[in-house]
């Protein structure tokens, strides 16, 4: 029983969900195709098994696409957070009036004189801006930068894990296809 427990089947779905990597189910490598095909209940054709494997592969690819989009958004956020944090820290150190250029649009910049202040306004997203003391803004931006960096590292880890699961499913599909081809060839020779 234990030797067949590792096969990819309906039973595998419940077993694999217990072995998840941050919500990504583990794809079990199909070592013995003959054994697996003979233990499917009810006995299924190779086409049915390949269809099931392909559905799982498509789920993995969909997860990969979503993770790549999240990673792209995070990579765009990190430089913005760093730049904002640098400016706010500069304002914290210099309690005097200073001049700076700020962007009005992509190609238009304006010269501005910034008076000494104890507060800053930060865009939080969704057309929301809140006023913070400079110290609170530094703490918030530092926390956001740390969170974004950790999330980016986790996404890289998840994408690597997901890539391994996709490869495992592709190999499983190739093995079942080859097993079916050999079986049909042997039947035709009889």
Percentage beta strand: 5-15%
For the biggest sheet, the summary is: 2 strands, antiparallel
Number of strands: 4
Percent in helix: 55-70%
**SSE order in H/E notation?**
HHHHEEEEH
Shape: rod-shaped
* Poorly predicted ranges: 1-18
Question: In angstroms, what is the radius of gyration?
Answer: 27 Å
- What is the count of DSSP helices, taking H or I runs of 4+ residues? 5
Would you tell me the overall average pLDDT? 87
Instruction: Trace the largest sheet across and list its strands.
Output: 1-2
- Structural class of the helix and strand makeup? alpha+beta
* First and last CA, distance: 32 Å
Can you describe this structure?
The chain is of the alpha+beta class and 190 residues long. It contains five helices and four strands. The protein has helices spanning 2-5, 10-17, 33-39, 46-93, 134-189, and strands at residues 98-105, 108-114, 119-125, 128-133. A two-stranded antiparallel ribbon has the order 1-2. β3 (119-125) and β4 (128-133) form a beta hairpin. The longest helix has 56 residues, at 134-189. It is rod-shaped, with a radius of gyration of 27 Å. The two termini are 32 Å apart. Mean pLDDT is 87; it is low at 1-18.
